[in-house]
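User: I'm putting together a teaching handout on how multi-component assemblies are represented. Below are the sequence lines for each component of a complex, exactly as they appear in our records. Could you produce the 3D structure of the whole assembly as structure tokens, so the students can see both representations side by side? Please keep the chain order the same as the input.
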Amino acid sequence: MNKYDAIVIGAGHNGLTNAAYLAKAGLNVLVLEKNAYIGGATVSRELYPDWKYSNCSYVCSLLRPEIIRDLELPRHGLQVVPYGGGVTFKENGDYFGSHADHERLLREIARHSKRDASAYERYEADVMKQTRLIRPFLMRTPPDPTSLKPKDLKELSLLAKSFGSMGEEGLADTMRFWTMSIGDFLDEYFESDVIKAHLAGSGIIGTALGVYSPGTAYVLLHHYMGDVDGSVGAWGFARGGMGSVSAALSKSFLSFGGTIKCDAEVGQIIVKNGKTKGVALANGDELYADIVVSNLDPKRTFLKIMDEGDLPSSVVTKAKNFKIRGSSGKLNIALDGLPTFTGLPKDSPLCLGEKHFSDSLPKMERAYDEWKAGTWSKDPYVDMLIPTQIDPTMAPPGKHMMSVFVQYAPPKVNGGEWTPEDKAGFEKTVIDQISNYSPDFKDLILHCETRTPQDIENEVGLTEGNIFMGELTFDQLLFNRPFPGYAQYRGPVKGMYMCSSGTHPGGGVMAAPGANAAREILQDLRLTNTVPGGYDDD
Amino acid sequence: MIPHDETMMLKTPFHSRIEAACEINMWEDWKGYTSPQAYTEVEQEYFAVRSNTGVFDISPMIKYRFTGPDAGAYLNRLVTRDISKIGIDRVAYTVWCDDNGQVMDDGTIFHLAENDYRLCAYARCLDWLMWSAEGFDVTIVDETADVAALAVQGPTSCAIFKEMGFEGIENLKPFGITRFPFEDSEVMISRTGFTGDLGYEIWIDPELAEAFWDALFEAGKHREIRPIGSAALDMLRTETGFIQAGVDFVPAEEAIRTGRSRSPFELGLGWLVSFDKPVFNGRKALLKEKKEGSRYAFVYLDVEGNKPAEHAFIYSGDKEVGTVTTGAWCPTAKTNVAFAQVDAKYGKVGQELVAEIYYERELKWTRVMAKCTVIEGAVFNPPRKRQTPAPDF
Amino acid sequence: MINVDKKYDVIVVGGGHNGLVCATYLAKAGRKVLVLEANAALGGASATSEFSDQFSVSSCAHWLFQLNPEVASDMDLKGHGLELTARDLNTIALAEDGNHLTIGANSLEGASVSDEDRKAFVAFNKQMLKFSKLLAGAFNRRAPKLVEGNLTDRITLAKLGLGMKMLGKTDMSDLMRLALINIYDVMEENFENDLLKAAISLDSLLGSHMGPRSPNTVFGYLYRRMGDVYGFNGPAVVKGGMGAVGEALGNAAKAAGVDIEVSSAVSKINVEVDRATGVTLADGRVVNAGMVVSNADPKTTFNKLVGLTNIETGVARRVKTMRMKGDAAKLHIALDSLPDFKGLTKDQMGQRLLIAPTMDYIELAFNACKYGEYSKAPAMDISIPTIHDPSLAPDGKHVMSVIVQFAPYELEGGWASQKENFKNLVIDRIADYAPNLKDKIIDSELLTPADLEDRFHIHGGHWHHGEISLDQILTMRPFPGASQYGTSVDGLFLCSAGTHPGGGVMGLAGHNAAKEIIKRGKSA
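Assistant: Of course. Below is the structure of the complete assembly, with chains in the same order as your input.
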């Protein structure tokens, strides 16, 4: 049988989510995956015997609870365990510990600056105001502001009402927040370098911008708008690695009667008479469906697996101009034991959280300057975690797995492809940096997988290795994502849809794009909606 | 650099004594300090203050010190009251607002000497204090950890102090400050408190804290002095009509949702606002509110029956007009009292309202619609609170 | 001069162009207005100064390209002596090898520019102009309040909304995207030629604390192109230097009945509780008026003149956090004769010359500023006004005026010890393009942002009186809560470039402030 109701291209978390909702509505759905395994960038891979690496995405917060519950992911094996806190190590041997306990966090901030401890409460309230504003729109399709359709007008007025509820000054502050740099924003609250540096990380992770680039304050928000069990802004580990997310999604999908084919790379979306008819695989096989959903990023979707002749020229231009920049790399390391960090007792609860080694904004900005100049940062911003401290399933007892997210790494080095020497140099930079703060770290390394943006692109299929499938700047958010006029998941060809992180509300393992796209597809097919609405935040 | 365990729960200078006395091991986190909820039994602790003397460790209270030529002008811009009217060795209760006239916190200002003030507050606010200091010649120091403090409250408190040799303490007027020698140093005593009874607060060098505690309890042993925890204090403040930040109102800068903060007028604290002084934070907005009217009223309710009205909805007829922020049965006044925020037009004394109260008995929840009446304020307000010279019991 | 017998309705603090415009409109509406200017000449940053014996130069702004025509005609600037000796000049992006690119209003020449680029340039111009025209609709009126707005505000919003819709679907969606992104990407999307990309990039960020890769810079470009909407097809040179603009405005103001006193610095705006009552001058005199309009930038107004202690903390915080870091310096050179620029004729030397070979060059120059360093290879905007106006220098001699971007206001280590080094470095850099420059130099003067602050009383030496970026425009300019010219102090208004619509010699801030004051009538 090679005829389906719908074909979803790419078994990443959004593709699987989309497929699950379509299958739940009774459609006969096929998911095609180019790799031998599912998950896309949401995987747990055994690249070293007995170790599991979440070798792309590595933490979980944004995954919408509505979807976890609705697709019964816990029953299908997903367990999310929150982790608390984090540390930013200072060059002088001290550190800033972001304790999970609120009062203890404030005491720790006060250790660096008493004024900042009191400013933190204002900061928290102000960021939460923005978070509350955006969260209700995660599980909704963005309105088209150029449209006069009742549905769009209704959604627009809802948007306007939410923004209006902030009050005149509140709205002005909101607009400032969305257009400011994270550095300028934090300067309005804090005086301590290390506290600003610790908080600024969320403004640049996965983004080809520096802490002083306008627009980065919003990126911070993107990392704050998730929650674990209603604790907004909290992050957790998926037990068994991020692959458990895609495993659970696939089981849910299969339980609705869906089909997944791996090792099935799509070469082309077949378009006839302005309508999608199916896909042609790279090996020449053709599979048919009137609905084709692409979970590939917008650039790959429109420039690689669609024929330019099938598309309006404006879409081709828009896809070409779509900002999707490789800015980060990753090290996944198997450790013979738990490394110690100078100055931080091994039993400190801070050890369980993320660790950073950039103690000032200028240091982070310089890391960005190096990326702009075409190389990886020599003193990078890293987001490092050892999930095995909480999750026993990822390494043998007593052994550990370390995930190091590295910002910045360019998609090309000085304009050329990454050479093995470049990659070794990148790896050494990161390992040396960590070793500066952890003397026994190097000796504990059993295996290290280093992934440049180019590796991520080649393996996972994310253009330039961009983890969000498109920069999270305001020109590419909401009704501008992936581009104006195509933000409602429908492609330019009848029957063709998009469901990747390149669509609203964007990247992170959120699954909302997949779900929102399914809702639009079902609406077009006049089928009963199976996608849940968002929880009311109040 | 401070070692990391400094961020563990802090201990007040009285901790050794408190720990020894805290028989039921009920603790809570008060702005980072280990603070007792109760020592033995809450009711007993409550009645100690109403009948004898109770001692509550207020060292964790956030304390800021302001010195310099502009200290007075600075505070006058910061808070709603006219600071120029507070003489040296006097204390004033006040609130301070943001530019929108919304209350950020309440607290007490101690005028310690010329150009020298202390502010005691519920929440940390150094950030706001520092922003407010732009342009003023004032030095601001967080002295929370530098001053140990106890509230010594109850009808026999004055007598106990006399027993300790603090001669003339009985002549200290409410909101007055005096000082006595203690050991080689001195103790500062103010006739202030959060219980609505005769009582004092003592302020002392942390080094002398334990010695003072010992001397106090020695002097008070025949007058049934006992330490009390926060649970008893909460009953006491309710009975006497004191509001609490974070419970009865949301501090303005911490409010996330538009419209959740309140002005002084809306908290029944309009008497703390003086328009007859130079510009102060919130002035413009408060003037406008005074002219155009408030959105809400903060009311004290005498609630029918004996079921505490905590978290109850308040109705006028069928219309929901507000909610209770604090509600409790008052053991001395034998009154069921509640504080509530209601729509402004239901705030007049004598207004009849209805509280929808839920209570539980052996897992059975029952709903009662209790009639209630808006009353003036404190249901417990004994003359000894104000009497000078203070009585012995 | 101050007329001691007159009871002034309004005192305007600062005789910069916006102050004079505002004063004139108010006087025409029947108000008794006094303008007080600290410097000896009117015009503020539209100034001419003799920086070396017999050599004069426009000492801050050196081109006129954004003056609003409505303001110019209402003031009758022509009638009051304003004369342009050249206008609609081309911009020449200099190449070290002499293969320069000449950028006209709608054409490109030289630099082996491709036909694709030529075509793309025309299309790009067309679209940008369309967007600038749309923005112009919001420029000559107060920035609308979005939530609490009254009818006037809602009409402005409706007009803007309608204007957006009128753009059509394609342009509208382009605008939504473009306004927020950086000029670097837009250049890469549209053009190949490095000089062209760099020249447009430089235009989008001159005077601000941004590099081509900073998001928001496309907005900066639309802002600059407002000049085209106002009838300028390129920069113009003012006879007598930019100070002549101030002079003409001063004449217009006087003709309208405004009293003006120069060399009369205001040291304090007097406030009684929360109402402005007048000003105190540096010499101790007190002048009362029912209203004070400050043409000083918002930071100077509140920090220095009103005093942060006389306003509420929230406003004081807004004042302190408003971003206003000047990154542009001015270099003035007295020349014995014209230097030889590789590949330029004399006529071409009279055009606007840019040194910014690539976008990365500018970005790198900006990098330095982020860390409090000056750029070792700065970008420049050069004018040789004496080619059009010989009156500025002795016969046959010339003056060169250079805007040097990037030199930070707060230089690590301070300017005192490094100013000379920086000046020499800048001159060396120009000499790369004009090898015999140094032989021609009679005298030179460098004004750092700190010097500009001292001379023109602008905090941070920031020409625009506050960074022009998306978080500081419209209802956010100068800061939330003070966006419609009124302030938290009754009777105190702002009319400087720090308010909507912003900097540049445009005159609209003064125009809009006056209209707002007139509209509010007695309630102001």
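A couple of points students might notice: The longest strand of chain C covers residues 286-294. The interface with chain B takes residues 271, 273-274, 303, 307-317, 320, 481, 488 of chain C (CB under 8 Å).
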